[in-house]
């Protein structure tokens, strides 16, 4: 396994890789749970993206409207920088912020899983 090109990473190649999808869902559930936000993945791999996206979007709308401080802490935990968010907003000005954030969260969690798996398979690269 070679390290993916993270600057141009797309979710598409991983949509049908069941183990990766389950790991990403588990990572999202874990990170959101640390902030008292429940995300539950049904296990339906074929609809994982849509299922996770809609749950994240609901939480993000709530955080944007009612608890911006907790949102900032959550994004920090996920390792999603303000710069990344601002770049996405500039690139997609007509997309609602909750949609952008949900997409960025899923993508960042995917990156975490891929990096973790890469170094599990290649411990000599640490």
Would you mind describing this structure in some detail?
By secondary structure, the protein is mainly alpha-helical. The chain is 64% helix and 0% strand. It has 5 helices and no strands. Helix 1 (18-33) packs across helix 5 and helix 2 (48-66) packs across helix 3. The chain is globular.
Secondary structure blueprint with pairings:
Layout: H1 18-33, H2 48-66, H3 68-78, H4 82-91, H5 97-121
Helix pairs in contact: 1-5, 2-3, 2-5, 4-5
Number of strands: 0
What is the helix fraction of residues, given as a range? 55-70%
| Radius of gyration over all CA atoms, rounded | 15 Å
Question: Counting H and I runs of at least 4 residues, what is the number of helices?
Answer: 5
Spans where pLDDT lies below 50 across 5 or more residues:
none
Proportion of β residues? under 5%
- Helical/strand content category: mainly alpha
First-residue to last-residue Cα separation: 15 Å
Mean of residue pLDDT values: 89
Q: Note the run of SSEs as H and E.
A: HHHHH
Which key phrases capture this entry?
126 residues, mainly alpha, globular
Please summarize what this structure is.
The chain is mainly alpha-helical. The protein has helices at 18-33, 48-66, 68-78, 82-91, 97-121.
